Amino acid sequence: MITLNFLNLTDNELDRPIYRIMKQEHVIGLFADKKNVLSQIHNWKDKFENFQLSLGGVLDGERFDFGFKNDFVGQCWTREYLSEAMWGIYANDPKQRFLRIRSTPRKLLTGLADAHPKMPQDTCFLGKVAYHKEKDLKAFLGGGPLSMSAISFARTLLLKRYAFKHESEVRLLHFGNAKDCDKYGLYRYEVDPHAMVTQIMADPNRDRANWLADKAAITAATGFTGEIKRSKAYDPPDWELPVYKSGC
Questions:
Q1: Phi-psi bin for 201: left (phi > 0), alpha (psi -120 to 50), beta?
Q2: Which of 70, 142, 148, 210 is deepest in the core (most CB within 10 A)?
Q3: Which backbone phi and psi does 13 adopt, to 5 degrees?
Q4: How many CA atoms lie within 13 A of 92 on its CB side?
Q5: What's the burial of 149, exposed, middle or buried (CB within 10 Å: 0-12/13-18/19+)?
Q6: Is the pLDDT assigned to residue 86 strictly greater than 80?
Q7: Nearest 5 degrees, angle CA 14-CA 18-CA 23?
Q8: C-alpha 28: how far from its chain's center?
Q9: Rounded-to-integer distance, Cα 128 and Cα 6, Å
Q10: What is the pTM of this model?
Q11: Rounded distance between C-alpha atoms, residue 84 and residue 108, angstroms
């Protein structure tokens, strides 16, 4: 039996929901093409990502660069399900429509491993990001001889600075070959989206009056039979009127 590499996660976290906000067209593409899309790390906004592989190192007194530094690809998810900040960061274009898909660590990593049956234990990883001060990340690199195993590099891709702690990230990682990525640094692999996704939620910027039509269009485009909801993060309170008494 293949051992799946879950990093920084306890057994009781493997089936807890995690979330990813995407453009609606990309979610529709996931269901239409039956392919999940991972990205080379250099495409990510934080330039501290992949710091170990990007810096290179010293071996037997000689400076070297890692020739495989772009072979890792990944996809970012969050454990936050009620965060307005995540909608604000990842769904901030009023001209676009966004959807949040829900899955679990076990479903994601199982799907990645199934698509890579050759040595998945050494190429497929999923882990929870740990957040540290910049000086601590620097000290980690200077703390002595470092391992050059795939799992060790995967672990460093789960280290971020405190400034990003609000994202509460979980990352799906694959150590493959940069040549398998397209010109944009994107890597696609076959997946069953109906096994991977357990819920779809639409962004909170949508007109409530058109939601039923929007929902029907999403259902038709994806064929998804699970729960499809609309975020109410920006809805006004829908409460009964409070009762006041007259006089003092």
A1: beta
A2: 70
A3: -95, -10
A4: 6
A5: exposed
A6: yes
A7: 145
A8: 17
A9: 8
A10: 0.91
A11: 24
CA 55 to chain centre: 24
Query: Is the per-residue pLDDT at 24 higher than 70?
Result: yes
pLDDT tens figures, 209-229: 999 999 999 999 999 999 999
Q: Which helix (H) or strand (E) holds 127?
A: strand 124-128
Mean pLDDT of 13-30: 97
Core vs surface per residue 158-172: b (16+ CB within 10 A) or e: bbbeeeeeebbbbbb
- For the chain, the residue count is 248
User: Which DSSP string do the residues of 171-183 spell out, in sequence order?
Assistant: EEEEE--GGGS-T
For 19-87, give the secondary structure using H, E and C: EEEEEHHHHHHHHHHCEEEEEEHHHCCCCCCCHHHHHCEEECCEEECCCCCCCEEEEEEECCCCCHHHH
Q: Which two tokens stand for residue 201?
A: 């939620």
**How far apart (Å, rounded) are the C-alpha atoms in residues 140 and 203?**
39
Q: Position 139: which residue type? A: A
CA-based torsion, 58, 60, 63, 68: positive or negative: negative
Burial of 20 (0-12, 13-18, 19+ CB in 10 A): buried
Classify residue 111 as exposed, middle or buried by CB count within 10 Å of its CB (0-12, 13-18, 19+). Answer: buried
The Cα angle at residue 43 between residues 19 and 52, in degrees rounded to 5: 95
The pLDDT tens digits for 152-203 are: 889 989 999 998 899 999 999 999 999 999 999 999 999 999 999 999 999 9
